[in-house]
Specification:
Keywords: ATP-binding, Cell membrane, Membrane, Nucleotide-binding, Repeat, Translocase, Transport. This protein is α/β, with parallel strands linked by helices. Helices cover about 30% and strands about 30% of the residues. Strand 19 and strand 20 form a beta hairpin.
Length: about 450
């Protein structure tokens, strides 16, 4: 059982982000916390695990798991009772090979590797693979199995659906249902909650530093998204992939891909591991095709938002310095005052003196979009643009893209977001099979 009472948290001498927050979960109960980007969900995770003290923050209040008070316990001690599934599950693995990593976990916890695989719902086929060869969903399920095997009583899942396709979402939900039966409690913090509302026991909304029961969730619960093939009548393309093959090692992730796009807004959708991120890198030019040709008609500057946004956030120590660095790279004049004005208008709780790495995932992506608005690149390439974004900011991002004169190329699992982008070329990709289809995505209310 998890009991949190009168929890306060802040960074440095700033305003309190959490203001006397309280919540409780029974054994085997699944709780869902929703809230706007910047509302404090990431801070809640850091406060529960104790790592907020390692980032210059302060947390005070009562945190109990199975009656054990954890408020004064260091993060390592808390991890025996509270486990966290981070957005990037790869950080849960010590060794590059899956079999080596699971063998270590098995030895440390006196279980068999087969037991770990059974908990994760995976076969022996993954044992001979590298961590980098598994899909996001497979890594997540293995990471959860490792936490369960370690004996944690509560698992906190930070945006677990952010990079999952619908099949992977269903497999994750099935795993959560299995671990519920063992008495493990789960606290999920999620923006794409329309996929999981029917699978949780308790829903709470974080607003103003406190938790309360939300309203108007029924409409989202009834939303489904339909993908339909459309005819490709492209006349004047600015983007073209001609018989493109690409492999990282010995295995091709793209096998003879052909497509043309004329719209200034191009979206790639498809299953996890389908090659969407690789296509973005080919368009950007950071990798070259093994065979075939990529033709892109654009001029500099280009702004790239990778799936791992921390690659950009780690460039400087402050938000203001990051903006000036990106402006310099783009050959643009920049004013810190302009950035401060945009940050204030969006009420996103970001200051130009903040360390970019200490922001939540959603705040990092909103920050990059604000910078894009100010720097006006000729081309934006975005991998999973809505990761960490609440519905409000997903809609605002869609409107920014719809109204801008920018060329924008995106890869996303977020079909709701894809349905909001007007006059776009949408491609469904299964790269290993060499399959590409031009499609439309529309919302269907049940």
């Amino acid at each position: 059982m998890l009991v949190v009472s009168d929890l306060w948290a802040r960074y440095g001498n700033g305003d309190w982000v959490l203001k006397g927050l309280s919540l409780s979960l029974k054994d085997g109960e699944v709780g869902l916390v929703i809230g706007d980007t910047g509302s404090g969900k990431t801070t809640l995770v850091r406060a529960l695990t104790g790592v907020i003290h390692l980032t210059g923050g302060l947390a005070k209040g009562v945190i109990k798991v199975n009656g054990v008070e954890l408020s004064g316990v260091e993060p390592r001690g808390r991890s025996r009772l509270i486990g966290v599934l981070y957005q990037d599950p790869a950080i849960h693995f010590t060794y590059p090979r899956i079999d080596e990593d699971l063998e270590l976990t098995a030895i440390e916890n006196n279980v068999g590797v087969k037991d770990l695989l059974k908990t994760a719902g995976l076969s022996n086929e993954v044992l001979g693979k590298l961590v980098t060869e598994l899909s996001m969903g497979q890594l997540q399920r293995l990471a959860i199995a490792k936490l369960v095997t370690r004996g944690v009583k509560v698992i906190v899942m930070d945006e677990p659906l952010a990079h999952l396709d619908q099949d992977a979402v269903e497999l994750l939900i099935a795993l959560i249902r299995r671990i519920k039966r063992s008495g493990v409690s789960v606290l999920m913090l999620e923006h794409r909650y329309e996929h999981i509302i029917g699978s949780v026991d308790k829903i709470l909304q974080l607003n103003g530093g406190k938790l309360s029961e939300p309203s108007n969730l029924s409409v989202l619960h009834r939303r489904r998204y339909i993908i339909r093939s459309v005819s490709d009548n492209t006349d004047h393309s600015w983007l073209k992939l001609s018989n493109v093959w690409f492999k990282y090692d010995d295995s091709y992730v793209l096998s003879g891909i052909n497509l043309t796009a004329s719209s200034s807004r191009v979206i790639f959708i498809g299953p996890n591991g389908s090659g969407k991120s690789t296509i973005l890198k080919l368009i950007l030019g950071v990798v070259k095709p093994s065979r075939g040709k990529v033709t892109v008609d654009y001029s500099r500057p280009v702004l790239y938002m990778p799936q791992d946004i921390n690659v950009v956030m780690s460039m400087t120590d402050t938000v203001g310095e990051l903006y000036l660095e990106l402006a310099k790279a783009a050959g643009r004049d920049a004013s810190i005052e302009d950035l401060e004005r945009e940050l204030k208008a969006l009420e996103i709780n970001i200051n130009t003196s903040d360390d970019p790495l200490h922001l939540s995932e959603g705040q990092k992506r909103v920050l990059m979009l604000i910078m894009a608005k100010l720097l006006k690149p000729t081309l934006m390439i975005i991998d999973e643009p809505t990761s960490g974004l609440s519905d409000r900011y997903r809609v605002e991002l869609a409107e920014f893209i719809n109204q801008s004169n920018l060329r924008v190329v995106m890869a996303t699992q977020d079909l709701r977001f894809a349905s909001l982008i007007r006059d776009s070329d949408v491609f469904y990709v299964r790269g290993r099979e060499g399959y590409v289809a031009k499609v439309s995505v529309s919302e269907h209310v049940l």
